[in-house]
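The material for today's practical consists of a large collection of protein records. A record pairs a protein's sequence with a compact description of its fold. Instead of coordinates, the fold is spelled out as a row of discrete tokens. We will come back to this pairing of sequence and fold again and again. Here is such a record, shown just as it appears in the course material.
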Amino acid sequence: MKRISAIVIFLLSSIYCFINAQNVGIGTTTPLEKLHLKGTLLIDKNSSSTASHLILNETQDDFSRLRFQNSSTSNYFLIAAKSQEDPSDARFNIFSNINGNLLSIRGNGNVGIGVGSPSAALQVNSRFGADLLRIQRDNSTKLRVYDNNAMVFGSNWGENPPSGVFRFNTPNMFIGFDGNHVPTERLEVDGKVRLDGLLMPVGHFKDYVMTSDADGEGYWAALPVDQVDDADASPSNELQTISKSGNTVTLSNGGGFFIDDDTDADASPSNELQNLALSGNTLSITSGNSVILPTGGGSGTLIQDPSGNELVDANRPSTYPQVIMDIQGTESFIFNRASGGSTLTFNNSNKNVAISGFLSPTFSGALDNVSIGNAVQATSITGERNVVLGVHTSSNYSGDDNIMIGNIAGAASTTRFRNVIIGPNSGQSITGNNNVCIGYQTGNGIGQQNVYIGELAGSNGNRNRGGAIGYLASTTASDQYVIGNINTVEIGGYEPWSNLSDGRFKINVKENVPGLEFIKALRPVTYNIDGEAAELFIRGSEDFNKLDLGYKKDLKKGKTKIETGFIAQEVESAAEILGYEFDGVKKPQNDNDPYALAYSTFVVPLVKAVQELSEKVEAQSLEILALKEELNLTKNLASKN
């Protein structure tokens, strides 16, 4: 038996074939797979009539594969095939573990490059920056698709310019030579365009236009002479001879209009009846006067369009950017409405400007005012250096240095100075000076030196030198600043509030602050705020009824919110009993001003109370120490006896 085994081993080694752990190796002693061949494999046919085959059965995923890999197996290619009863589902793929699907052929004939399952006869997907498609002949490219939007035709596709480019920027298209051009119109062409049957007549390009006949057939039509930029198509209004009969002026080609010499702008008879002649761009009149037409091809310096509108320097080219009128007078330049009201006024002598869609104001001794908007300052202005912008803004005033911007901003105010009002319906009833109102319906109260910022921010009466910031924030007394409204839940920042406390400016300094006695008289409580009652007290019934319903709903929530503090009237009473003028109580200044407490001020009597308690503790400590010494002495005497 041993001899037979030795013979088998000898035979296998002579053909370099080894069996290792059920793996068979040919040309290798360490086979790594079921069959490991190191060398060349030749498959020959069995007979002259039988073809040779390498048969790979399908795996569980219906694919059979042939794999090519490098020595480290990190990179490999797969040739995979899938046979199905449905031919359209059969596939032949070449796959790379680095780049994915490279080539795919489906049973229905669809071919994909860079696509695993092509849905068209030829589907190409370039994922690595390469051209999408390139067709060459004799190494010369004839068609190139080099990005998602551009195609190049011609042999010199890599040069600048290429032979030809189609470029798309949906829904726009470009035809030309610039491969980087991105079209912004439906069709852009760089170069000449030839349309068979619609060739431009030589030498007459500027005088022809492409049009169509009644059957829709296109053709080039010549424009009438002197009609290239005319406002209409009638040849009767080009070169005319003007004649007059009575008050009727008639054109030589028919038509006419009336003229009344009594209302003529000047007394010169030389400009009444004239013959017109055109030489180049100059329209000459028989009296020797002339009107110069724009050289850029405009319609004229003064024309009337088909709708009856008068146009000054219509279609003026960009090379002539200015229209200059040098007119003298109190109201130098006025545009009138059909009903006669001024809508645009430049007051030259006093440097006022008014532009309005209704009635511009009359300036009676006013200087340096600017009014812009519908019915802005619609009656009389005698003030100076005011700027007003909006609708129905500041109808009549005599103040100076005001700025009003917004719909009906400052509309009901009359005499005021140095106010800034910005926002719709803001500052309507302000009659004071030096106020700032910014927001919707902001600052609708009288007073001076106030600052109101936020929707409906203001005061509840005649208040001065105060400010309110936030929605419905309201001052209730002069020299008061308020942030937020009764529904505000927090006002904060990153640093404590600072008060002026410089000893250099403090006089009559006295140490008369009550401490423990005052603190003991206070009654700390928890409570709810009746927001509706507070707002009604501050604003009055008329303004309270105008409040937003959502805001009123939020006021009711305050009745359930628990707050901690003191009752201002009780604090006031405790201080009065002690003869202490405590500035932590903010007493009402008028009938609509509520009590308030400055809680930070309580720190001072609290410090005094702590100092007094400390003195008592020190005195008690000394008394206790003396009692202890006396007790110890008594004990010592007793022990000796």
Remarks:
- Residues 603-640 form the longest helix (38 residues).
- Residues 137-189 form one domain.
- The mean pLDDT is 71.
